[in-house]
From TrEMBL:
Family, similarity comment: Belongs to the PNP/MTAP phosphorylase family.
PANTHER family: METHYLTHIOADENOSINE/PURINE NUCLEOSIDE PHOSPHORYLASE, PURINE NUCLEOSIDE PHOSPHORYLASE-RELATED
Pathway: Purine metabolism; purine nucleoside salvage
Annotated organism of origin: Adineta ricciae (Rotifer)
Any one GO molecular-function label of the UniProt entry: purine-nucleoside phosphorylase activity
Example GO biological process: nucleoside metabolic process
Enzyme Commission number(s) of this protein: 2.4.2.1
GO cellular component: cytoplasm
Name the UniProt record assigns to this protein: Purine nucleoside phosphorylase
Length: 319
């Protein structure tokens, strides 16, 4: 399949000058002027010509966790490169496909590869596919990521249910919702000031604990800290995160979950602890991405089984 597009993938400053400039010039505002309601609609329309079944569950696959999409049956794979205006994943361990199909009885869409701010994308660009998946019909978002273990009680290979997050870019004035709050998304017109106190669905969290118990998997639960990257953290930064109540750290997820809360997704977040974080100045170990991918791939099966069963639960409890 090949679809020619003359877009520059909506990277940062490709604002359409014909659009009114009632928003500021913050890079995220510019992105939101590029990914207008019409453009999101165009992307959704393009996908709907290829995929006629409406997905109920949207899944974002973290570093090394793209194998989840291989569990999907009756697959339709839509490369990001074929979708008008869609960015590309540039990071090892992230492919660049939307994978549609059946997972344990429900129709799903998997992002096999996500976008990170350190790749040069704004947080708004990184997160905008969440809106696309919502407009395609999904009501539940399962977000997965690789993360460093900030909590000293965590071990490499642990799976942490994300109960909340610390969104550092947001605290520094960098939120994917900066810019015009377009109320034409009539199915999910998020408010100008969206609440995010319950961005991670409590009932889903409890259900996932039950699923894990059945599999004899002991889940951790904690607060995910979203930082900008691409540097891994200094020892002082890790110590700060501990003081602030952080349990795991990564460079993704928080902007996606922010947009998901805005457009009415119910969200489950799972972080796979791929490495310990630096704790003292005598430690010689430093995290490396190769280890992150290796551990993700090693533990992927376990995570996939949990998600597979969780989707089965959603199927049985749909209203
Ligand atoms: O969050 P995901 O995409 O799983 O990846 C994590 O792993 C990479 C660092 O090794 C960073 O991209 C970090 O965010």
């Amino acid at each position: 399949m090949s679809h020619q597009t003359n877009s520059s993938a909506g990277l940062t400053g490709t604002a359409d000058s014909s659009l009114s400039s009632s928003v500021g010039e913050h890079p995220n505002a510019i992105t939101n002027r590029f990914y207008t309601y019409e453009r999101v609609e165009e992307i959704v329309g393009f996908i709907q010509k290829l995929v006629t079944t409406k997905p109920e569950i949207a899944i974002i696959c973290g570093s090394g966790l793209g194998g989840l999409a291989e569990l999907v049956t009756d697959k339709i794979v839509v490369p990001y490169a074929d979708i008008p205006h869609f960015p590309r994943s540039t990071v090892v361990g992230h492919r660049s496909n939307l994978v549609f199909g059946n997972l344990n009885g429900l129709y799903v869409v998997c992002m096999q590869g996500r976008f990170h701010p350190y790749e040069g994308y704004t947080t708004a660009t990184c997160a905008f596919p969440v809106r696309v998946m919502r407009m395609l019909g999904a009501h539940t978002l399962i977000v997965t990521c690789a993360a460093g273990g900030v909590n000293k009680g965590f071990s490499v290979g642990d799976i942490m249910l994300i109960k909340d997050h610390l969104n550092f870019p947001n605290l520094a004035g960098n939120n994917p919702l900066i810019g015009h709050n377009d109320e034409r998304y009539h199915l999910f017109p998020g408010p100008r000031f969206p609440p995010v106190g319950h961005a991670y669905d409590r009932a889903y969290l409890l259900k996932m604990k039950e699923v894990a118990k059945k599999h004899n998997v002991e889940l951790r639960e904690g607060v995910y800290c979203g930082l900008g990257g691409p540097c891994y953290e200094t020892i002082a930064e890790i110590n700060m995160l501990r003081i602030l109540g952080g349990d795991a750290v990564g460079m993704s997820t928080v902007h996606e979950v922010t947009l998901a809360a805005h457009c009415g997704f119910r969200t489950l977040g799972l972080a796979l602890i791929t490495n310990k974080c630096l704790s003292d100045y005598n430690t010689t170990y430093e995290p490396v991405h190769e280890d992150v991918i290796r551990i993700s791939e090693l533990k992927a099966n376990e995570l996939q089984q949990l998600i597979f069963d969780f989707v089965g639960f959603i199927k049985d409890h749909r209203t």
